[in-house]
Design a protein that fits this description.
Two copies of one chain form a homodimer. By secondary structure, chain A is of the alpha+beta class. Chain A has helices at 2-7, 47-50, 72-80, 128-132, 153-161, 174-181, 186-192, and strands spanning 13-18, 28-33, 36-42, 58-62, 65-66, 88-93, 99-104, 113-116, 119-123, 138-143, 146-147, 166-173. In chain A, strands 1, 2, 3, 4, 5 and 6 form a six-stranded antiparallel β-sheet that branches. In chain A, 48% of the residues are buried. Chains A, B: Keywords: Repeat.
């Protein structure tokens, strides 16, 4: 299905070319985790969003330099100092802390789990969530590939409701999610985050 | 390569049939994590090892019953009470908390990381580990698919040394690993764990 294709997490490595916009911005924020650099935020309509970068992507290389062991300021410096602002080559590993799980709605439209905002808090017995081994204390980052980070409970519910019979969730253990969004301004996540449906 | 094939983590669901041995044992231990049941230990030469079960596999179903929300005692009860000890059907999700990363040795045979026992503690710049985005605070569970849990530093070094030019590591964030092996008797892990090379 299209949702499945949009949600696909490969854990593979690829090269992505981004450019700076008129204000010299690429439209993403980094966070250092376990000596790696991760995408913590992608702004709606930004060059980063258009290049297909997503929350949780690991940045391996910026403009030819490995970023291992850098803090997020040093990694941002590499973006700032890049030779050609119209063409910054990034080495990306596709969302290493994430995985997908595909569920099917029952005849009442239920998937079989409760969420509080975008965190999974309970699994109901004898449901698609139970049969497929969905876990609590995980955050839902995407629904059929569409980012739901920062959405309120009702909004996440709405996305799930309108998602069709087959729903692929992209999840991350909450313990890692909490670390990844630490120090983030919540209004930024809520208002400016890219929530568009990705092209396949 | 064969190592890559042996190490493959699919996150997919499959059915596995196990039987009890002469002593009524299957040869594995469970742990409840996030309302799911996980394989915490597989004994060498046991029915569980022969059936291809591994540390970190999620048990979805035992003998037709979903295990969501059970504690490990209740899950073990389902194994004990099963109708036919010669044929217990398990629904398994392939190691949801794990991922693989493939590295290549340089001309000196180095991969580019330091480990303490089976935990990754440092990444060297300009190495295969750095280029591929290996992370610290992760545990190595398998090397080319071979379980290294409970091995001491030297033994892990030996496995890495003899692993050939291309080495696929199966890793898990240490924060999740620590939770998974909590309450485990270390001598059990060390002495009786299945460390055999898996068949593909």
């Amino acid at each position: 299905s299209l949702g499945l294709a949009r949600a696909n997490v490969t854990h593979g490595v690829r090269e992505v070319i981004v450019c700076k916009d008129g204000k010299g911005k690429v439209g993403m924020r980094f966070r250092a985790v376990n000596k790696g650099i991760f995408v913590q935020f992608v702004a709606e309509g930004s060059p980063a969003a258009l290049a297909g970068l997503r929350f949780g992507d690991q940045i391996l290389q910026i403009d030819g330099e490995n970023v291992v062991g850098l803090n997020h300021d040093k990694a941002m410096d590499l973006m700032t100092k890049c030779k050609n602002p119209g063409r910054i080559a990034l080495g990306i590993r596709d969302r290493p802390f994430e995985r997908t799980i595909t569920l099917h709605k029952d005849s009442s439209g239920h998937l079989g789990f409760e969420h509080k905002d975008n965190q999974i808090v309970a699994i109901a017995k004898e449901t698609s969530a139970a049969r497929n081994g969905l876990l609590v204390d995980h955050h839902i980052l995407e629904v059929n590939g569409q980012n739901v980070i920062g959405l309120k409970n009702k909004e996440v519910g709405k996305v799930l409701e309108t998602a069709g019979q087959t729903v692929t969730l992209t999840v991350m253990p909450s313990i890692i999610y909490d670390h990844m969004v630490k120090c983030m301004d919540f209004s930024l996540i809520k208002k400016k985050q890219d929530h568009s449906i990705p092209e396949v």
